[in-house]
Amino acid sequence: MDLEQIWHQFINQLLSNEEINQASVKKFSGIPFIYIHYHSPDNEEQLLFFIIKKAASHSMRGKQLHCETIFVRQEEHLYVFRHRFYVPQKKMFCCGNLCPDCILFRS
Questions:
Q1: How confident is the model at residue 56 (pLDDT cuts 50, 70, 90)?
Q2: Which of 41, 34, 46 minimizes the C-alpha distance to 18?
Q3: Could you give the percent of the chain with pLDDT greater than 70?
Q4: Backbone conformation region of residue 76, classed left if phi is above 0, alpha if psi is from -120 to 50, else beta
Q5: CA distance 80 to 36
């Protein structure tokens, strides 16, 4: 699976929002961080989280991926998040909690 294509779709989806002026990804020590210049009349951080989740779900559609977004810092209109896409690991044993991805349900 090519994550570069997914990152490209994700950034393009973020930039399609009129409240986001600029968005970029930078990797430090292998950990991707997204830098977003966000101008909103409300200036709500929760709304920005919703925009990020919506863009991530759009770029992950049809693929077995998950994402994780963690707020790092804010400077005026610049928001920094640690964001990563990852492939879920398959369970190798039954824990007894009747999880939806339990190996007992595999055919």
A1: very high
A2: 41
A3: 93
A4: left
A5: 6
pTM for the full model? 0.77
**CA-to-CA dists, residue 97 to 1, 70, 90, 106, 107, angstroms:** 30, 28, 15, 15, 19
Is-contact 67 60, C-beta < 8 A? yes
Rounded distance between C-alpha atoms, residue 107 and residue 96, angstroms: 18
Instruction: Give DSSP secondary structure letters for 42-100.
Output: S--HHHHHHHHHHHHHHHHTTS--EEEEEEEEEETTEEEEEEEEEPPPPP-S--SS--T
CA–CA dist 40, 77 (Å, integer):
9
**98 torsion bin: left (phi>0), alpha (psi -120 to 50), beta (else):** left
Strand partners, 34: 25, 81
- The number of residues making up the chain comes to 107
Q: Which two tokens stand for residue 103?
A: 């190996």
DSSP designation for 18: T
